[in-house]
Each structure stands twice: as structure tokens, then as C-alpha cells.
Amino acid sequence: xxxxxxxxxxxxxxxxxxxxxxxxxxxxxxxxxxxxxxxxxxxxxxxxxxxxxxxxxxxxxxxxxxxxxxxxxxxxxxxxxxxxxxxxxxxxxxxxxxxxxxxxxxxxxxxxxxxxxxxxxxxxxxxxxxxxxxxxxxxxxxxxxxxxxxxxxxxxxxxxxxxxxxxxxxxxxxxxxxxxxxxxxxxxxxxxxxxxxxxxxxxxxxxxxxxxxxxxxxxxxxxxxxxxxxxxxxxxxxxxxxxxxxxxxxxxxxxxxxxxxxxxxxxxxxxxxxxxxxxxxxxxxxxxxxxxxxxxxxxxxxxxxxxxxxxxxxxxxxxxxxxxxxxxxxxxxxxxxxxxxxxxxxxxxxxxxxxxxxxxxxxxxxxxxxxxxxxxxxxxxxxxxxxxxxxxxxxxxxxxxxxxxxxxxxxxxx
Length: 414
Hints:
This protein has helices at residues 4-26, 30-35, 42-50, 61-79, 85-117, 126-132, 153-174, 176-195, 200-203, 205-224, 232-250, 255-273, 288-296, 298-320, 328-366. The chain is an all-alpha fold. The chain has one domain. Helix 1 packs antiparallel against helix 4 (61-79). The longest helix has 39 residues, at 328-366. The chain is globular.
């Protein structure tokens, strides 16, 4: 059984982030048009105002983090006990790193070719070395490679993979309150780093611990059938967070704090869609299928969209002398990136998923799990930004109307 909400939300989050980034190299920008309105058509001026909501979509990465925590912990919440750290590590590494490394290689090749085309001398960025090691947020002054600055979130995700076994250990031995304490300590470290003016505050897992762990909490309560009754107050808070947070962003509120508003909205939205709002996601609906498909390739889309836009922007400026004036150009580019992401998924990401499954099974077959069951039973759902769960999502322990949650999600048997 799969939860349609997972891939639908992944698809929406990926589309929003990509749309936000398309503006960087493929549009002159809102401020330019408003500052020199006489140089632009009425349509371009109107579309610039319509672009304002898109300018706040970068924080949809918080939705990825909530989904990651949920999907990582969901199968373990059903199985109970500690993860087999070796099999878990193998799966996590091959799920996220091979496609990421291919992206870095392609970006470097593109950078060299662009340098040669402009008759410049290609230069090796030290950030490539740190990025290969997933340490660019800690070193190289927190800088990303020029052709793909959106890769900052991948090391953060990898850090959560490393921390999760510790979080699970605390939960198994000390309970949920101890987990909350651990989460608050981690989050406090992120705040301290922020107040010290250190860039790593935005590039380490500490700040986002409460957001990621909220997804794990949802998974635990969902599997146990213990989610509190969804009320109108939850709905009000969800609507408030997803409307007021971007509004505050438009008036210049600090991005560091706004991420928590986006995280709260993502947490509540996922909660609603796996309980009372599940009826909105009919898997046969025409609007659900495209988003589910997009969710399947969303990690690939996240990895390659920025290089495509930068190369496209460079070519546009070379031929036309300036960036596009119409917001329609980055909008069309957003959807044009999807076929490239599908090809990347088929060529690189999907095969790495198969390697992850095969290697984890081989490792697990060598030694039984501590509890006597085979370690292959430790199904780990796909969790990073944009992968499709290759295993069936475990059904919750209580699928009745207890606790007021209509957990009658129609299963998708694969």
C-alpha cells in the first residue's frame, strides 16, 4: 500500500522549487520591471505581479524534509526495534549519492565547455571537491558550485540519514520525550549558529531538526493509529501558516525564521492528507496521476534543473543580449525541464535504486537480524527529495475510525 500524498506532495514541492529557481537566469526580475516600467509591456508588468507568490517557493524544501522524516521512519515504526545499520547505510548511500555524483560530473563538464565557448580558461572550483564529499556547506565558505547552487540541501539530507539511527536509539530506550529533548537541543544549536552569524546555520541539519523529526513523529503516530483527532483548529492553523508565512516573506521577514512557518504548514498538510484529507487524492483522478509521476522523478528534477536553466540563460543572453522580459519564459522552462529529469531518472537514478536494493539484500542475507528476522524485512521507504517508494508502504496498526482519523486510504498495489 502506498500513500498517494507522498508522491503528490513531492511533485508539488519539486515543481515549486524549480519554478522559483527558473527566475534567476531566465527573467529580468520583478524589481527591474517595476523600476523601469516604461521599458516593458503591460503584459510583462502584469505578469511580474503574478510572479510574486513564486518568489516565496524556495522554502518548499521544508516540505521535502518533513516527507523525508516521515518516509524514513514509517517502515521502522511498523517493524519496531533498531535498524540494521549496515543495510540501512548501503541503501541510503546508493539511493542518494550516485545520481548526485553524476550531477556534479555533468556540471563540471558543462562548466568547462561554457568556458571554452566564451574563450576563457576553465577553472577548477574548490567547491567541487567539497561537494563531492558532501561537505560544501561546512567548507568552501558554504559556497555551492556556480552551475548548481541548489545542491546545498543534499548534504543536509545526508546528515539526517546519519543522525536518524541515534534518534531511533533514543526513542527505543528513552521514549518520545527524550526524542523531543534531543530535537530541541539540535534546533537550539542551529539558532546559536545563526546568532553567531555563521553561514553553516543554514547549511547544517541542526536548524531543520524539528522539521525533519516532525515527519518521523507523524509516521510513528500514524502506524500506531494514535494521531490526535483532526479538528477545525488544525485546519485553521494549516491555512494560516501556508498563507501568512509567504506574506511575511514578501514584506522582507528573515528567511531563517520563515522556514519554520513553512515547516509547520508542511507538517500539517501531510497530516491532513494522510487522514481527513485523504479523500481528495483519488489515485485515478487526472490531476493526481501527473503529480504522482512528477513525484517519482522529483529528485532527478531537483538535481538537474538549475544547470539546465543556467546553460539556457547563458545561450539566451548570447543571442538576445539580455535576459527574457516575460515571466512566461521561466514558467515554460520549468515544465520543459521535466522531460530531461525523466531521462536522468531512467539513466542514472533508477538504476542506483536497484543497486541499493540488491546490495542491501546481499548484506542482509549474510547475517540474520538481532531479533531473529531477516534484515531484508527492514524495508526503508524512499525518503529523499524526489524518489518513488519502491516498496509497499506499511499499513497503520489501526485502520479504524479510532482517534477520529479516517485512515481508509485506497491502497496502490505495486
